[in-house]
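Page 42, continued from yesterday. The earlier attempt failed because a stray header line got pasted into the input along with the sequence. Redoing it now with the clean sequence only.
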Amino acid sequence: MIVDDSVVARAVIARMIDASDRFSVVGAVGNVAAALEFLGRAVVDFILLDIAMPGVDGLTALPDLIAAGQGAKVLIVSSTADEGSVAAVQALALGAAETLVKPSASALSGRFGAALLTKLERLCQNVHQLPPAILVRPTPTDSPSQPTPAAAIPAAQMSASEDYDIVAIGASTGGIHALSRMFREVPTGFRLPIVITQHLPTSFMPYFAAQVALLAGRPCEVAVDRLRIRPGRIVVAPGDAHLHCVKLSDGGAAFRLTREAVGSGCMPSVDPMLTSLADVYGPRVLAIVLSGMGRDGAEGARRVHETGGCVVAQDRESSVVWGMPGAVASSGMADAVLAPDAIGRLVASRRRP
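This time it went through. Structure tokens are written below.
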């Protein structure tokens, strides 16, 4: 479904999509009210949403459209959605799956059409999916192929030996919305350091850090080389480097920024962050993998698992794209597969006294 107040934009975009061999337009409306009415009687896979519209704008309507879409992914297509813009970051934080800059009406062709179809193709990515159940790592008496439901082991009953010293989060498409839901459940007094690798362009990172600080109610900064890990603060990876944790001679830890090629092809990548944190903190790491395309984070989660840390993946039902968390879950490395709000409660319940 296309939601855009421009008749020309709706017609041109619809023609581009219908000309593809995979997608078709089932609805094209000019305002939010018409979009909500349409979604009340039809099912769509994608909502292409403009921001600047008369009456209710796209950002204001985004949460309602996500709810009415019942799983439809929202792609913001707007002239104000350029990389690093406040509007683009807000859209991602509110749950949009992707953003794409819409050129002027005279330029709605060629490169724009190819970019639009590429975005839709990527959002169609599908990895091996498990049922949307909650899983935990098997105990010695469990069969490896028969994981025990996490509901049978409440977080409050986990042993004190499983406490952690740092929280590490990896995410991509849909991750900002998941972070927003997660941080609602974490008290602002939470003192453990939190480190995040989110797949975003470099130009987005200052806005992303500011958004995270607002969501979490605590300082958040974009990592620089040799940045020391400190309690009560959040660190996000820059868009052009991996976070690599190193141990300091005084017993503390810091981040070095590295730019080596990694198996996932991502920059920044979740894998080196989780792997290096596991090597420094061992079983004291809580690793969380949220919504995102691909498999980035799966190898790092494996290292956290091997060193005795705790690994949590976002569940399929709440994920915009169940690629990254799905890869962790299907590999058997996840101690739990949960919705973001439940992950937040787990983080809060596991803080050290």
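Notes: Confidence is low (pLDDT under 50) at residues 126-162.
Reminder to self: strip header lines before submitting.
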